Protein 1
Amino acid sequence: MNKTPSINIQYVSINNLKIISPTILVLFTIICLNACSQDNGKSASTNFDSLITNNSENTIQTAIVDTIIDPITIQVKLDNQQTIIKLIGLTTPGFDVNPEIYDSALKFTKFHLHKNKEVRLLRDRYNMSEAIQLSYLFVDGEMYNKLMLTSGYAIVSNTPDQFEYKEEFQSIEQEAQDSSLGYWQNSMSITNRQQIEDKKFNQKEPAGTLPKINITNSSNQKCDYAQNNTPVIKANNDKKTGDKNYYLPNSIFYKTIEIREEDGDKLFCSEIEAQNSGWVKSKH
């Protein structure tokens, strides 16, 4: 038969009252405090790890805003050095493409990220080796990348191809588009204007006072999205970011883009031709 283990508790007698020895009480107190501190330490560690994501290489850095270069590019003071960071996963039309949209996005960023504002930076685990620091930026506890998308002041970029929050960013962008916020506010009117222009083009109606002409193709080849061999695919070379995107006639920003050959812009007859030349199809 197994014996039940027993604990020998020492008592002391004071005025004929038996109480537990002070030495035993001290030991119990020390044991309890030690156990509680271990549990609390484990809980704090778990909460902190959840903020950094599951990738142990990622660390949150504190920086101070210095200069707003453009709506998604900011110069900050990081580790006592001036560093240029770009909000990962975002793009905005350049000033030369659409000044009104660009100015609105720039004012929005300058309002939230004013000079000497303290921010937090988190690099994306898929893009740690990029020359320009691509980052998620947190201000007042909120990810600013998401705020730009939510308000319609930015759209999801085609580059980089992969980043951690890409699917979530695309979902936020769709909600802004459905609500006609920011860039999406006039998207319907832009589309309607494009349809009218396409109709005029298909009717071969010349502008101004020139007489009507009968356009005949010099070859049997027809360009994509055209009735003849006239190239209509616009390829825009963004000199600031280095992005080379081409836009189709049914894209939202097609009408806002001006082709300037001196800046490296081009017109292509087919998408295959544009892609073979190193251009990437714009999502918008």
Protein 2
Amino acid sequence: MGNCVIDNSMVPHPRQCRMAMGIGRESISVIIADALQEPGSRLLCRNIDLPFDAQGGHSELPAISVVENAVYDNPALLADYDMISVSVDSGLWSVVPKESVAADMDEAVTIASLPEEKTKSTVALRCPVTGTDTVIVSLLPADIVGFLQRTFNNPVITHPLQQLASHFVKTARLTKEPVLHVHFRTCKTMYIIVFAGNSLKLANVFSYHDPMDAVYYILASVAALGMSPSDVQLRLSGEPESRRELVPLVSPYVESAVAATFPASLLREGTQALNAPLELTSLLCE
């Protein structure tokens, strides 16, 4: 038996629960929500650390054997849930306008934009960004997709960038000004997503070492859209320490930097929900 952090005793009634699972480079994050529990005790949040040498060659995703072992070592993941969503953090993706390319050509466009050696043995996942005219096409290792579909009951497989964009657009379309969202992940990774109304203008992922690098990526993203920092509303989410580091550094360049809107249905769950990965908690609110 390996690293067991979620056993069956923790989820006595899986049929009344939803499970959201995020597969990343170094860990698998899991949130299980029981709608029939009292507010404040509905969420079970756990993180399964993966071996340091677990990378499987596809955009630094873990090898299939590592994913399999992590799932089988945590038997509660195999329960019969009301709904299962899985977010797979592949670095092979492309943003495609719906109207510019036919649906059956999305995969070809994405593959053509990436090095050939990185697209072997992959499956294209087409993820429409809700409320926009944009699709995010992600290439995932075929063995991981096959395992997820065999192991779980009708899982909804997504990409974290698509899930974040679908969540952020709900509030972005309520304002006339462009909105730039910065979402911080662990391992010094940041997602930058820019909206103007219902239109997704930019979506990208950056790795950085110094907080000033994060400021540079924000300002460069604004400049790439032909805007000035004062033109956009800056909204922050994700890893708390990274947000605290960024605010004093970026404040001289922008009008304001505020927290992004959190899913209203989870506000009563307290700090556990606030500290959980937004790309997973938002899946539970669909």
Protein 3
Amino acid sequence: MYQMRRKRFMTGKWILHMVMLGICSAEDYREKRISSWKLLLYAGLVFLYGIWEYSTQGEEHGRWILSSILGSIPGAFLLITGKISQEAVGYGDGLAVLLIGISMGFWEALGILFTASVGACFVSLYLILRRKCGRKRQIAFLPFLFLGMAGAGLWTGALKIGKL
């Protein structure tokens, strides 16, 4: 019963995060920043979804709270890194990872962050080797989080695709 309920929640969460990451990624790619109101909307939707999820958890409240607290660690780490590095890692990126972690849990957030980081590393390396930019050029990170979330959805089966 718990696994079936968890799978339904994961699909709903995945859709919520994909939509909001898609909206925020487009702005981050174009302008290298994210509007505060979009991040607040994202946080509000995650909060409302979390309340609904918490109210339907039955006897799993403790597990849900622990998962949310542990899930916030990667995002908190990114926010601290952004503060220490004078925003070499943007606060919007840290807040997005924080919201993903609170909603999805520690391991899911870490996997999405790892996938996004590897993707950003490869693109940065490609741009440097092709002499399209220097080491100091900033690239938008939220599009990579968007792709990491898409990969996580495909990997965990949140996105149902028929047999190919």
Protein 4
Amino acid sequence: MRAGWTSDKLEKVSDFVDDAAGRLYPRRDSIKSVPDRDRRLIRAFPYFIALCLILWICSILYLGDYSFSKLVEILCLSFVACFAALGVPCLLMMDKGVFSTWVIFLLAVFMTGLLWLSEIYMGQVYYAEAIYDIMNVLGVYLDDVMQLILGFGGTLAIMFFTSVGVLSVIGAYMRLYMARVFLSMQRRAGTGKRGKAEKFFMVPDIIDVKEVVMEPRRDPHVFHFSTSVEVTAYLFILGLLISSYLFVNPLLISVMGWHTMLAVTMMLSMFTPALILPWFIVRSIGAKVRSDAPRDYYLWIGARKRLFSTFAALGVFMMMFVLSVYLGNSVSEIILTYVSFLAPLFATSVVYGAIYTNNFDSQVCESICENFEEGKESRESPRGPST
């Protein structure tokens, strides 16, 4: 009863949002596609990772601080900064969405503002302090106003451009390789053989796969608000699991400083979509296997089971929390540190959910379905006579 009421409310809000998009941008029937964009991005990605590591090493050598906490902090900041830089060209090649990019950017500005208000209220403006430290290392000294302005701008750049960069990489890999995974299952259909794909999607052993089918339910010209809410919620829940391991872990509390732990969680919260979005995409394309069983088996269910469960996250938090208190850590300090991470986690989750739903969800699913059907037809089509 309650679930049905929530679903109806989300559907009404989704219709309202899409109606607003139609009034603002009535011409939204074309999706921009950059030729060979995904292949170029994937080919360049290993070099990009190498560049991140080079930046990390150079930063450590320049600072001259080789402590474990500083090594970890600079590593995280290097990857986040590099992905923000990657997000700039990716933004220029990104598919069009229902809403203009400026609307999503304004949402990122709004969420950055909320994040800063929460940090000012708690007296821990980490991002402004990070900008201040970087400028001091470079020999540039800022007053309080410029420190706040640059700190806000840096936070906004990380919030928006890093999200675009990460989603572009995930989308490129999913568009090129996900259809191949399903085609490998299709090749083994009816043979009784099982491969890595069947194991990953946790297809029960009693199911003898006969066929892989896709039933996408995505209109590329509609902003699916419910999808945005679900992506945000799952990213937030997974972030809570990560923070449970870090902020209430007694060993890490004693070894790492607060800045280092926040840098680590900031990087991890930026890259958790790599764990969440694959099974979301599998669900969106309606991928399922048919067998002799009376019901089809939807592959996204197995992919989600592979990830995590809310009860496991709650159990980890309670175990770490009790252990930390038992070892003499302050309860109030643990809670304050934990809550201080919730604001940036919520802000990044909302921005990720909006960008993914607007610019990647329908577009990525459409590409996967097209590649799968083309591959399926090419394998089923009879070969011509040899000459």
